[in-house]
Amino acid sequence: MSRLYGLYDECKKYGSVRSWKLLVSTFQCLPLAAVIDERTFCVHHGMSPKLHTLNDMDALARNELAEDEAPLCDLLFSEPQDSPCWVPNEDLFGYLWGPDVTEWWNSNNGLEFLVRSGGYIAERA
Question: How many whole angstroms from its chain centre is CA 25?
């Protein structure tokens, strides 16, 4: 993914292939998501229709990212949208999901908020 989105080229241009390898190995050590105060779910980008609980995330193999259809890929590339349910993201990897999915996720996991790097904050009703 980092090659596809230009990180490899940037590292090669301004540093070295070794710097890219170090960054990628560092990414492998970072958590996929975090829960703050047992209320707020924080994730890099999105959610996956293949994951139903926080425990499902713990069972993910970190090397799954190589597969476009893997739940790990969904967590990194899925996006919120205004329409309901899950819709495959035709432009990129992952899915688009609506407020109903966020509400279901929060309710199913005893959470109140979902926060993602794109600035989307959703509160459980």
Answer: 18
pLDDT tens figures, 38-96? 999 999 888 899 999 999 988 887 665 555 568 888 888 888 888 788 998 887 778 99
DSSP string across 10-23: HHHHHS-HHHHHHH
Q: Scanning the structure block, which residue is given the tokens 């432009």?
A: 91
Write the CB contacts of 32 (distance below 8 Å, at least 6 apart in sequence): 43, 44, 57, 60, 72, 75
Determine contact, residues 92/105, Cβ cutoff 8 Å. Answer: no
pLDDT above 80 for 18: yes
What pLDDT, on a 0 to 100 scale, did the predictor assign at position 38?
94
- What are the structure tokens assigned to 23, written together? 């960054």
State the Cα–Cα distance between residues 36 and 106, nearest whole angstrom: 13
Beta strands (DSSP E) in the chain are 33-36, 40-43, 79-80, 86-88, 95-97, 113-116, 121-123
Q: How far apart are CA 81 and CA 25, in angstroms?
A: 32
